Structure to design on (331 residues):
């Protein structure tokens, strides 16, 4: 761990507390000059650190910058297996983790970025990932004896975990649009993309990459026109450690469900937060849209629908769309 990382860990552990230069130097076993240089570096990265004569240095409680140290202080024991990297910018978090998987990285390898240059969504779409306002996270999983159908559990568990994290940190109810979009107040605030590699001989999952993108705040320049009627954010104004708390809450809740899969009641939680059940939806498959009614979500998290001609089908993949009513009308 570098001097800067040690210093940030200390400040994060005591936000709003003043530490004298002498106290910091002694605790971290570094020189006073190294303390000053470390503080200067952190300030250049945007951390608001006050310096007061006879009191020392203090990290403002109003700070909301994603960092490993900021997330670690909120993580529960079930996340001890995570090898977490936090970076300002990356091309694509899922691609970064896939490369690590091919190099033999263990389960728990994870990256969280403040900005993606080439964020990816489902069906080959791009994922809007502007700097400073979101959480873009990917996690490497190596589940044992998972078939392709069972791999869907990863996405559904993640959807529940995101909802629980948003509700815990913001107090706002969150809902799931089957199968992988999270909505708050009628607007999409999160997308989930799970990609997997399968063995040719047994068809089982060799590894999976879970990607989660959360709009924590509205972008400074606003959402692109094609997204402004659909996309929203968890918070409308800056929160004390909002991004670090939200990232940690998600990891805590997902890892708890993932490591206790047999006891997990995530399917019931998924159903309870469904945004589509009982609604008229448009099922998009093979480039065509068919109108249907969403009937139920089964124990495998397949969506059962009834088409206009009376035929029923259980969907394990694909996409559905629906009209949502909010204060601005229909989406």
């Amino acid at each position: 761990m570098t001097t800067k990382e040690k210093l940030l860990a200390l400040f994060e552990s005591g936000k709003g507390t003043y530490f004298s230069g002498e106290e910091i130097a002694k605790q971290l076993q570094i020189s006073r000059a190294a303390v000053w240089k470390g503080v200067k570096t952190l300030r250049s990265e945007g951390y608001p650190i006050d310096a007061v004569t006879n009191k020392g240095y203090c990290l403002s409680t109003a700070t909301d910058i994603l960092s490993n140290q900021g997330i670690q202080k909120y993580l529960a024991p079930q996340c001890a297996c995570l090898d977490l990297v936090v970076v300002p910018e990356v091309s694509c978090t899922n691609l970064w983790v896939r490369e690590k998987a091919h190099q033999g990285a263990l389960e728990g390898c994870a990256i969280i970025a403040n900005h993606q240059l080439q964020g990816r969504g489902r069906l080959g779409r791009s994922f809007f990932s502007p700097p400073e306002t979101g959480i873009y996270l990917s996690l490497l999983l190596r589940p044992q004896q998972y078939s392709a159908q069972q791999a869907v559990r990863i996405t559904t568990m993640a959807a529940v975990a995101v909802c629980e994290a948003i509700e815990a940190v913001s107090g706002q109810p969150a809902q799931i649009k089957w199968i992988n979009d999270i909505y708050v107040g009628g607007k999409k605030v999160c997308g989930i993309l799970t990609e997997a590699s399968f063995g040719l001989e047994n068809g089982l999952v060799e590894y999976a990459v879970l990607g989660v993108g959360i709009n924590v705040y509205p972008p400074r320049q606003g959402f692109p026109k094609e997204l402004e009627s659909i996309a929203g954010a968890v918070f409308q104004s800056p929160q004390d450690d909002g991004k670090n708390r939200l990232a940690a809450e998600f990891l805590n809740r997902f890892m708890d469900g993932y490591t206790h899969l047999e006891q997990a009641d995530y399917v019931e939680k998924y159903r309870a937060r469904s945004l589509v059940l009982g609604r008229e939806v448009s099922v998009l498959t093979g480039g065509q849209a068919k109108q249907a009614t969403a009937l139920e979500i089964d124990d495998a998290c397949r969506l059962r629908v009834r088409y206009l001609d009376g035929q029923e089908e259980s969907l394990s993949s694909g996409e559905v769309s629906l009209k949502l009513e909010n204060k601005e009308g229909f989406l």
About this structure: The radius of gyration is 22 Å. Helices lie at 3-13, 21-28, 32-44, 68-72, 93-102, 148-170, 242-259, 266-272. The CA atoms of residues 4 and 38 lie 5 Å apart.
